[in-house]
Write the structure tokens for this entry.
Amino acid sequence: MSKLIFKCSNISKSFYQGNKTVEVLKNIDFTLEQSTSVSIVGPSGSGKTTFLNVLSGLDSPSAGKVFYKEKDINNLNDKERASIRNKEIGFVYQFHHLLPEFTALENVSLPMLISGLNMEEANEKSSRLLKKVNLENRMDHKPSELSGGERQRVAVARSLSNSPSCLIMDEPTGDLDAYNALKVSNTILELSDEFNISLIIATHDVSLSSRTKKIFNL
Ligand SMILES: Nc1ncnc2c1ncn2[C@@H]1O[C@H](COP(=O)(O)OP(=O)(O)OP(=O)(O)O)[C@@H](O)[C@H]1O
Ligand SMILES: [Mg+2]
């Protein structure tokens, strides 16, 4: 049997606003084997982003448990959780979160500097990754000097910087035209194959979800 990257049993997540309860996720079971890709699909508001945040430990479930490689992600100490997030799970957020005052190259290098690489090694690896997403001519641009699609590609390169075993992506082709959506999808799927990375992708993009091995409906 192949090894499980994620295992969730009976996950529920509610938000509380005053005396109102917003029940978003209800009794979700989910598993992901190593080197598998899965699309998380469902209408806007169905809880895709919430689910990704719970999976990665950014948010905790109201009930149920999330295991990352057999470790209960909500039972780790801060150091262990930070280390998993920095080194093992790459995250591409729905709204990029690039640091505005840094260049594309610096944004990609940052997670590697945090994990202990020196500047030269980090920049060398960043330029290789930026080449992979066809941004070799934009490495010294700040996010405000990049198009939306280029920013998304920087975020994809950054998510790969520490060679994660799993990539969690929230609408990675969200605000791209069809041509660039296809290019970014190709990049993600090719790189995950090349580096043996498991993929969890929340997406409305049918041309992307149809190319992952599994589809998980919320
Ligand atoms: N902090 C919060 N407090 C209260 N309700 C919240 C909170 N965060 C999310 N929600 C609600 O939970 C539901 C799910 O939100 P979520 O962002 O997970 O949806 P989504 O499936 O990612 O949608 P989209 O496709 O539009 O990105 C929404 O109805 C939202 O209003
Ligand atoms: Mg969302």
